């Protein structure tokens, strides 16, 4: 693998163990949803409706990114609990996957540091010969 050989040492072992432990438990949820679920209130505009005086009609919305664009979709009240569960599954998966990617980045940085240290030792060794 050339320059990107696996870093060595206790820190590298700890990072790899954490990464592989997370990968073993990582399950791709088939029906997970991205984004967030929010509740807002709207007035319908009819003068004789209860919302004209009160807080308005409840409106649940799923907000997410698709194709680089923000999308907001209304969610029927009877779907709210299921959508909330799916959004939480999506969030948990995203966080778990982020931990794996972060461990990979930390291993890369560690390898770079070890390479630099090795080059420094070899340079000083040649200078003393």
Strands side by side in the biggest sheet: 1-2-3
Give the overall shape.
Answer: elongated
**With helices defined by DSSP (H or I, 4 residues minimum), what is the helix count?**
2
Count of spatially separate domains: 1
Strand fraction band? 15-25%
Helix content: 40-55%
What is the N-to-C succession of helices and strands?
HEEEH
Largest sheet: 3 strands, antiparallel
The end-to-end distance, rounded to whole angstroms, is: 30 Å
The gyration radius over C-alpha positions equals 26 Å
Class derived from helix and strand content: alpha+beta
- Mean pLDDT figure: 89
Poorly predicted regions: none
Number of beta strands: 3
Task: Write a structural description.
By secondary structure, the protein is an alpha+beta fold. The chain has one domain. It has 2 helices and 3 strands; from the N terminus they run H-E-E-E-H. The chain has a 3-stranded antiparallel beta sheet with strand order 1-2-3, covered by helices on one side. Strand 2 and strand 3 (69-75) form a beta hairpin. Helix 1 packs antiparallel against helix 2. The longest helix is centred in the last third of the chain and has 49 residues, at 80-128. It is elongated. The protein starts with 9 loop residues before the first helix and ends with a helix. The model has no long low-confidence stretch (mean pLDDT 89).
